[in-house]
Amino acid sequence: MDHFEPRDGALWAEGVSLSALAAEVGTPAYVYSTATLTRHYSVLRDAVAAHSAAFGDALIAFAVKANSNLSVLATLARLGCGADTVSEGEIRRARAAGVPAGKIIFSGVGKTDAELAFALDAGVRQINVESPAELDRLIAVAAGKGACPDIAIRVNPKIGAGGHAKITTGGEGDKFGVPSDEAMALYARAAASPHLNPVGLACHIGSQITDLAPLEAAFRLLRQMTETLRGQGLSVTRLDLGGGLGVPYAGGAHSVSPADYAAMAARVLDGLDVEAAFEPGRLLAANAGVLLSRVIQITERADGRRFVVLDAAMNDLLRPALYDAFHEVKAVTPRPGAKIACDIVGPVCETGDTFARDRALPPLQAGDLVVFTGAGAYGAVMASEYNSRPLVPEILVDGDRWALVRTRPTYEAMLARETMARWL
Ligand SMILES: *Cc1c(COP(=O)(O)O)cnc(C)c1O
What we know:
There is one protein chain. By secondary structure, this protein is α/β, with parallel strands linked by helices. It has two domains: 4-32 and 286-416, Lyase, Ornithine Decarboxylase, Chain A, domain 1 (Beta Barrel), CATH 2.40.37.10; 34-285, Alpha-Beta Barrel (TIM Barrel), CATH 3.20.20. Helices cover 31% and strands 24% of the residues. The chain is built from 13 helices and 21 strands. The chain has helices at 18-25, 34-49, 52-55, 70-78, 88-96, 113-122, 132-145, 180-192, 212-231, 258-269, 282-285, 319-323, 411-416; strands spanning 4-7, 10-13, 16-17, 29-33, 59-63, 82-85, 104-106, 126-129, 150-156, 178-179, 197-202, 238-240, 275-278, 289-300, 306-310, 329-331, 340-345, 354-361, 369-372, 394-398, 401-406. It is globular and about 75 Å long. The chain starts with a strand and ends in an 8-residue tail after the last helix. The site of pyridoxal-5'-phosphate has 18 residues, from helix 11.
């Protein structure tokens, strides 16, 4: 569910007209809805709270990589949401947005020593260790500081899942996590160090998962491992269940509801007496954002092929080029008339800069506004200035107010970031 709805024949973001935003800020621009972010968070929070006996003092930690805009993070932080981070930059963003360090999880396959040191100084809730080599480095860094951080071992359950091979993370050949037998040995090794406090296990098997079975298998493995470790006299008090829940990109219902997801996890963890953590990214943010764009022109070929050329491109929204992702395209003020099949493309000089092929859309003309829905996660965060197109701005709407929460740099500012080599 989202709050981008038509009013008098034109699409609005909550109480703000998208046409008015385009006129004020220009296009392309991302537009986020506070009401939708809030709703998605509350639905998951309530689903988790319904099973508090199984989840203990549960933490929902938004995966910052999905949308790291400070105002988006602050909106979620005020609702009580924590942060799952994968870099020092993301920890800094979460802190700047008001997420308490005690609600920040630090994940990631390649944390540098400097980043580990930063996380220790920040006092994050937990560091998820993803390899034996990282464990050794963390022991050295913690020893140097006389620290003893809470850690979890990220398990690679050999269960990959997700909407595309590039966003599957739990498979045997994927770079993430430690295979379960090695993970248990690593846990024991961590427990033997005076500089680490192993508190639990973590997993995250992929993204855009629309079937509960692989998640359930992974959670069952975490449960078994917890029982085995406890059998060895080790303490396990937290299980980090990762993120990955899919969202409907083409309208229609969720194939997995947060309620069913939480009920499944509660069934698996029943009686285990752990604190659960959830790391949703896409689930909270995807449908809380649209990319607003204007039609530059319609190019018609003699063979009948029709290209809608937008002022948004793959540098603004990479998912179609990177993952063949589907985003629904809607006219902001649809014109009457039969739908026409067209290719929706951007102006970047690559064929990969194609958002959709043979998509049936109501008639469009140069100057019309369109939105890509479901663009609030893995959208603006992946934007670049490829083709020297200034970084796409971001707008946050809340009821009938809005704010430009990331400005579009001027061409002058874009060029000023670079310095000419002194010999030129
Ligand atoms: C990306 C990521 C997530 C969030 O994934 P979604 O599919 O957006 O929910 C959660 N945890 C970790 C460790 C991640 O890398």
